[in-house]
TrEMBL record:
Domain NADP-dependent oxidoreductase: 1-99
InterPro entries: NAD(P)_OxRdtase_dom_sf (IPR036812), NADP_OxRdtase_dom (IPR023210)
Domain of life: Eukaryota
Record Pfam families: Aldo_ket_red
Protein name in UniProt: NADP-dependent oxidoreductase domain-containing protein
Length: 145
């Protein structure tokens, strides 16, 4: 089971905005009151660079950052589910669509078959996107340990 596949919302890209993102966003709403989140997901240079690279890759692939992040997590062989947190119905709807294997149009290039975490042969992300994710991870290893 994977928790926080969006890294407390960082992988949505919303905190990249000038001023640190929307005031109602979780990391902003609870600033100063959520020690674990601030120490783990707080503003560090490698976090901003990694998120920017992942968001750029998602855009290139025709995905939202949310779709790419959740689909990556669910593609891992030992992951059977992901614990998500949505603060509004629109966020939940996007997460539920992203969590469906083989979700079809708008995914960029052809999706590769493989042993996805949530079932044999599940379709999650194109092989070239998975390879690009690995390259970004090598450049920005473990930004939010």
């Amino acid at each position: 089971m994977a928790y926080s596949p969006l890294a407390m919302g960082l992988l949505t890209g919303k905190y990249q905005a000038p001023g640190g993102g929307p005031p109602a966003a979780r990391l902003n709403r609870y600033r100063g009151r959520y020690a674990e989140a601030e120490s783990r997901y707080g503003p560090k240079p490698n976090v901003r660079e990694a998120v920017a690279a992942y968001c750029a890759l998602a855009a290139e692939a025709g995905l939202s950052p949310v779709q790419m992040a959740l689909r990556f997590v669910l593609s891992r062989p030992l992951v059977s589910c992901a614990v998500i947190g949505a603060t509004n119905p629109d966020q939940l709807a996007e997460l539920l669509v992203a969590a469906e294997p083989g979700w079809g149009s708008g995914t960029g290039s052809a999706v590769s078959e493989g042993s996805g975490g949530r079932g044999e042969g599940a379709q999650w992300l194109p092989a070239e996107v998975l390879e690009a994710i690995d390259r970004i991870h090598m450049q920005h290893p473990n930004p939010t340990p």
